[in-house]
Amino acid sequence: MASEVFAPAKINLTLHVTGRREDGYHLLDSLVSFAPVGDLLTISEGDGLSLRVDGPEAEGVPEDGNNLVMKAAALLVSDADLHLHKALPAASGIGGGSADAAAALRGVSARGGGDASAEGLLAAHGEEILALGADVPMCLYARPLRAEGIGEALTPLALPPVAAVLVNPRLQVSTPAVFRALERRDNTPMPETLPDMRDTADLIAVLSEMRNDLQAPACAVQPAILDVLARIGAQPGCKLARMSGSGATCFGLFLSETEAAAAAEAIAAAEPGWWVASAVLGDCSALAAPRGQ
Ligand code: C5P
């Protein structure tokens, strides 16, 4: 029997770059949430490991051992037939490949009767999972959290849900190039204790005081991101427009789902070549749990 695992998009609501390790990796302090928009991985029995990729965002996604899904599955099993339906644009700052790798880990582990929880997988294979990509551990949680270190020190949080529009101008941005363009690598972290956030308005007020330190360098590498941010910020009801991760996907936050959906519709109509979605960001862990083993 096949199992299905949903891989929700990861959104960095904030991302402060607070230092740099000797190996060149940057130390981060980031508030992360997840969107019920994502890829779908189907796992069935196979002889050896194989992967097939289809879906609207499949172009250019490798189907061999270079795909993070294959690398992730290979950590746990040597036989599985994997089918990835790609709905998230690749190399876009919303975790696509990392979310897929996390889905593979959850799904393969659950099929083998193992512990598919983020805590269990990280306790057993933390180093190898982090080596797949710095965002893979957070994608295992698929729920709001604070990420520190290079993405391995994770603290789940209860953040209020927030309606958002997600926009990618269909330009891939190289994460190492953005980190190279970063001028200050010792920016202030977020406050150690976050203020109380009772509702969406509180959350947006707190986020407004914070930043994504990769936004300016990403705009220097790819100036089209400035247009995306301006387009989002001009939508009625948009309270905050910011880039996620190392870009180029940006998000706008709204007080209501209706406003976010209207913004998505308006942007998609004006820019038919862009990838646009609206979603409520929050806890997607139930949605991301493997189904049908
Ligand atoms: O781990 P991941 O494959 O996502 O990282 C891609 C590249 O981004 C790394 O090789 C590194 O250049 C940069 N990076 C970084 N600091 C991080 C995460 C990524 O410098 N915390």
Protein described:
- The chain is α+β, with helices and mostly antiparallel strands.
- A hairpin with a 3-residue loop joins strand 5 and strand 6.
- It has 2 domains: 154 residues, 2-Layer Sandwich (Ribosomal Protein S5, domain 2); 120 residues, GHMP kinase, C-terminal domain (Alpha-Beta Plaits), CATH 3.30.70.890.
- The mean pLDDT is 96.
- Strands 1, 2, 3, 4, 5 and 6 form a 6-stranded mixed beta sheet that branches. The protein has a 4-stranded antiparallel beta sheet with strand order 8-9-7-10, sandwiched between helices.
- It is built from 9 helices and 10 strands.
- The relative contact order is 0.19.
- Cytidine-5'-monophosphate (C5P) binds next to strand 2 and helix 5.
Return the average pLDDT rounded to an integer: 96
Structural class: alpha+beta
**Overall geometric form:** globular
What is the overall number of helices? 9
Estimate the strand proportion: 25-35%
Helical fraction: 25-40%
Q: Indicate the radius of gyration in whole angstroms.
A: 18 Å
The largest sheet, given as strand count, sense and whether it forms a barrel, is: 6 strands, mixed
Function: Catalyzes the phosphorylation of the position 2 hydroxy group of 4-diphosphocytidyl-2C-methyl-D-erythritol.
GO molecular function: 4-(cytidine 5'-diphospho)-2-C-methyl-D-erythritol kinase activity; ATP binding
Domain GHMP kinase N-terminal: 67-142
EC number: 2.7.1.148
